[in-house]
Specification:
There is one protein chain. The protein is mainly α and 430 residues long. The protein contains 16 helices and no strands. Helix 1 runs antiparallel to helix 2, helix 12 crosses helix 15 and helix 13 packs across helix 16. It is globular and about 65 Å long.
Length: 430
């Protein structure tokens, strides 16, 4: 049997490999640094800068095809990600652990962003249109599975190792990252063997850096000439403002000591609550959002989605005041917030597609995703400092106050009622 001819042999593992380093950089790093004693201000500031590769990804994505094939980029980035995991593991027990781990997390972030570019392009080349449609749900499922493994299983393993090795935190987390290193070496070996060699996957001929720069200038020009450009960019940056503040602090709140106003969850409990129950809620909310928006369109469901992505944040105000000891209550609260976020995030993603319509829709969508990453990066830079200045209770109240920004941005949008409706054509499509 020729495994390279069977998409089941590589599509699931490719998108699992796409998800793990992103989760490691965005979530596991938070828990690691909290366990190693950094303040919330330092944690959120340092880790928010790790969004930068995804912010500037559109700047170098057009140049990938000028150097090597997408297949080469995939396998090369996987071995670099494995090396980055090994580097984090090696530096955790050292005296320069902060500088060392941040350097390797940066390598992981840039390698992961480049891997995303190559993998998504390769998916289009290696599969025909029928296979692309068939496997779109499979790739999404395995990306979500990577989130569960990363935020859930790996964090729980780290907590278990801390118990086994009698609270030797640095040693325990070092072992975890060495394990991740081994995992990515195995993924690299597997994909080196099974990834097919599409005839279309080659270095682009007749295209130079100067022509790419000219096209990029035209892309930028047309992007900023779109209708409602200022409103559109502000929406991309501010719609998720409450979540941008909440996303990192919520994790730190769950594991922070009760004397600091947190819930004091162990890594095992955190991995189950946020990495498993939370991800399931996020996934189910996203599925439901896609179903209803696909049936009735974005405009009809915009306001329910705005409410869903903002109002459930109140559960953190409740938990900050009540400090529930019952893990069931914490699970329910996190599930509600993440389900609402998944449902409400659908409106955001659909608007990116709506704004990107036209001749340069692929390039414009890439620019939209850069604004999407920036919308999470900017609030995260100061979220920790704000929380430490006012405490968890007041911080979560401030998050609720910022929900008004989401409502304001949504009120300014002009959306064709037919966009996204089943069986209807958007009258403004060009």
């Amino acid at each position: 049997m020729n495994l390279s001819k069977n998409p089941w042999s590589w599509v699931p593992s490719l998108y699992f490999a796409e998800g793990i380093p992103y989760v490691a950089v965005m979530t596991i790093a938070l828990v690691l640094y909290k366990q190693l004693g950094l303040s919330n201000t330092e944690i959120t500031y340092y880790t928010s800068w790790l969004y930068l590769p995804w912010v500037i990804k559109p700047l170098w994505s057009p140049f990938i095809d000028l150097i090597k094939t997408k297949r080469w980029w995939i396998t090369s980035m996987q071995i670099l990600i494995g090396a980055a995991f090994g580097g984090v593991a090696f530096t955790i027990p050292t005296d320069f652990w902060l500088q060392g781990t941040l350097a390797f997390f940066w390598l992981m972030a840039f390698s992961s962003a480049t891997h995303d570019i190559a993998a998504d392009g390769y998916y289009m080349l290696a599969l025909d249109s029928h296979e692309q449609s068939w496997f779109v749900g499979i790739r999404s499922t395995f990306y979500r599975l990577a989130m569960i493994v990363g935020q859930g299983v790996l964090v729980m393993i780290a907590g278990t190792l801390e118990i086994i090795f009698r609270n030797q935190i640095a040693y325990s987390w070092s072992l975890l990252f060495y394990g991740c290193c081994g995992l990515f070496i195995a993924i690299w070996i597997w994909h080196t063997y099974v990834l097919p060699h599409p005839s279309e996957d080659g270095v682009r001929e007749g295209v130079s850096a100067s022509t790419i720069l000219a096209d990029f200038k035209e892309t930028i020009k047309t992007f900023f000439q779109k209708e409602q450009v200022l409103v559109g960019i502000l929406f991309m940056l501010l719609y998720r403002m409450p979540e941008g503040l909440l996303v990192k602090i919520s994790t730190l709140f769950l594991i922070d000591a009760e004397t600091n106003g947190g819930l004091g969850l162990s890594p095992q409990e955190l991995g189950f609550v946020q990495g498993t129950v939370g991800v399931i809620g996020l996934t189910l909310g996203g599925i439901l959002g896609g179903i209803v928006a696909g049936k009735d369109g974005l405009k009809k469901w915009l306001w329910p989605m705005v409410c869903a992505i903002t109002l459930p944040d109140i559960v953190y105000v409740f938990m900050a005041y009540a400090l529930p000891a019952d893990l069931l209550i914490v699970n329910v609260c996190v599930f509600i917030e993440q389900f609402g976020y998944g449902f409400g995030f659908t409106a955001y993603m659909l608007y990116l597609i709506y704004y990107s319509r036209g001749e340069y829709k692929t390039s414009h969508y890439a620019l939209c995703t850069a604004f999407m990453a920036l919308s999470m990066m900017i609030p995260g830079l100061f979220a920790g400092a704000l929380q430490e200045a006012v405490g968890y209770r007041m911080f979560f109240i401030i998050v609720m106050a910022f929900c008004s920004v989401t409502f304001l941005m949504a009120s300014l949008l002009k959306i064709d009622p037919s966009f996204g409706c089943k069986g209807k054509q958007d009258s403004t499509e060009k």
